[in-house]
Design a protein that fits this description.
There is one protein chain. This protein has helices spanning 64-68, 76-90, 100-103, 106-117, 122-128, 139-147, 160-168, 188-198, and strands at residues 8-18, 24-33, 42-46, 56-61, 92-97, 152-156, 172-177. It has two domains: 9-99 and 136-198, Rossmann fold; 108-135, no CATH class. By secondary structure, it is α/β, with parallel strands linked by helices. Strands 1-2-3-5-4-6-7 form a seven-stranded mixed sheet, with helices on both faces. It starts with 7 loop residues before the first strand and ends in an 11-residue tail after the last helix. The longest helix is centred in the middle third of the chain and has 15 residues, at 76-90. Keywords: GTP-binding, Hydrolase, Metal-binding, Nucleotide-binding, Riboflavin biosynthesis, Zinc. Catalyzes the conversion of GTP to 2,5-diamino-6-ribosylamino-4(3H)-pyrimidinone 5'-phosphate (DARP), formate and pyrophosphate. Residues 20-178 form the GTP cyclohydrolase II domain.
Amino acid sequence: MPQPGAATVRSRVRIPLTFPDGYRADAEVSTFHGLTDGAEHLALALGTVPEGGTPLVRLHSECLTGDVFGSDRCDCGPQLRESVERISEAGGYLLYLRQEGRGIGLYNKLDAYALQDSGLDTYDANTALGLPEDGRDYTAAAQMLAALDATGIDLLSNNPDKAAQLADLGIVVRHRVPTGVHLSASNVRYLRAKVERTGHSIELSRLVG
């Protein structure tokens, strides 16, 4: 894969974060010039990386329904909350990527939900709409990490594709660290599809028969 061009940090601003359960964290939020897809992605610096340590990094794709409205149809909101705490403890970055619906957009994601209600899984619903199963490209994420001098990372993710894409783009993923399992009655089929279709490292077998 060709290496992306350089991006630069456009601005930095400190934002105190408070989650619905009362958890608080301080983030330094960076914006960027020169991202290849032109989207307004953000990097949240959390905690302090120990001297000689490796930053813990989460690539979190925007999910309005899960992150903001608390939808139980996915595990995005709980993963966001967990990631902020774990990165704050270890030191590193949460990249908040504007890739709603695995890159298909909000309206298409809601259309895919309607197809899932008729029995399709999350991937087949996308393809039934003539869209990719997963349309995300992490070139901009690699540019952001390079601009932050974070070219060697531990990746907080269950998704092997994220690690593979970053490695192809020149980011050294030293370890891939799985998130917790955020199971609800509404997202069992969604999580099972991620395990069975795209090899996500989610330990569902010990929780779901």
